[in-house]
Amino acid sequence: xxxxxxxxxxxxxxxxxxxxxxxxxxxxxxxxxxxxxxxxxxxxxxxxxxxxxxxxxxxxxxxxxxxxxxxxxxxxxxxxxxxxxxxxxxxxxxxxxxxxxxxxxxxxxxxxxxxxxxxxxxxxxxxxxxxxxxxxxx
Length: 138
Prior knowledge:
CATH 2.40.50; 1 helix; globular; 5% helix; single chain; 5-stranded antiparallel sheet; 2 domains
């Protein structure tokens, strides 16, 4: 029998981006849902869970100078809406970059990072953030 901490650590969606693909209309969505928001009832039984690549382009962005206290050491930081290659748009922080270098169309990929923890010996919360993909030189 798995303990609660082990179950929590070994849950695949803790460290990967899983979405759904509707085999009725072909669209992908994140986060996963039970029924396709486009097809509705037509999608019943036609939904499959997929692992998203986590790659895409910045669709919209904002440079944050005053935000959450937990992120005070990271200010200023970039918050972006990323259009994933599979189609869904996802909001997340763009890290490991100079905010001035980020622009609409910049290619990024997801990375899982520690977001917070509950006290000094509590549960660690992981989540996704985005990092820029270096451009290939010709």
